[in-house]
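Dear support,

I submitted the protein below through the web form. The confirmation email said the job was done, but the results page showed an empty box. After a refresh the structure appeared. I'm attaching both so you can tell me whether what I see now is the final result or a partial one.
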Amino acid sequence: MQSSKLARLAKQLTHEVVIDHDFVNRAFAANGGAKQLNKMLDQQLDEVVATLSESL
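What the results page shows now:
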């Protein structure tokens, strides 16, 4: 489950320049937004977002 959500997030990177909680909330609104994604990522959303932002 986590890998599919991460793959979706990575796919969105081709369309976005800034990755932050607002972006995550919009991109995953139908699936519970940032709160639900953070839960699915074992409370590591901040680390994932930071890593993705640094990689851009």
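Response: this is the final, complete result; the empty box was a page-load delay. The mean pLDDT is 84.
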